[in-house]
Amino acid sequence: MTPAPASGIALDDVWHAFDGEPVLRGITAALTERRIGIVGANGSGKSTLARTFNGLVVPDRGTVTVGGDDVRRHRARARERVGFVFADASAQIIMPTVAEDVALSLRGRGRRARRTGVADPRVAEALDRYGLAELADRPAQLLSSGQKQLLAFASVLVTEPEILVCDEPTTLLDLRNMLRVEEILAGLAQQVILLTHHLDMLDDFDRVLVIDRGEIACDAAPAEAVGYYRELAAR
Prior knowledge:
Rossmann fold; 7 helices; alpha/beta; 29% helix
């Protein structure tokens, strides 16, 4: 089943601080393109920004909406619509085995799955799609870094979110697995918002935002935005 087209994420004057230090400073943007990149130095605020998209972080001021729904008031709905993949997949693997971890994502959504997860055909389909079928009963935390990241994608995408946010999903991967992640992202019907330090991954994206000191410093096509970011990093 192909997810319904996403109506996008909108941010209106979003501010947030940690320990009194501003991390996001009045960010306003409408994120409607199918493939959007977000880049910035470590500590620039880009990961905090991404976490506001589904309520993992609730801003101190301003509003974030998904398809018109205020994330602050409809956090559960936002998390159904916006899937999130982290840089370290180990942090989002919860269940003992590979199949159980995928099956867990379906629970609470009116779907039944046994402890092994194989009873739900969607679990088996997701494992097969991401090359994990033969690892269904393997302890999830004993997988390689690349396999764990594939499991993270399977566990998120099995729920068919409208939007997929990926926060540096290739950081811990070798070249082979990085290319596999690129292939997965390129083939998705969902809107994809990718945070990355691997700038060449953004070459064919629709739009790239450069975050600097909690603000959008540049919002442009990939070549212009990446060029701006390189100049910013060189200063």
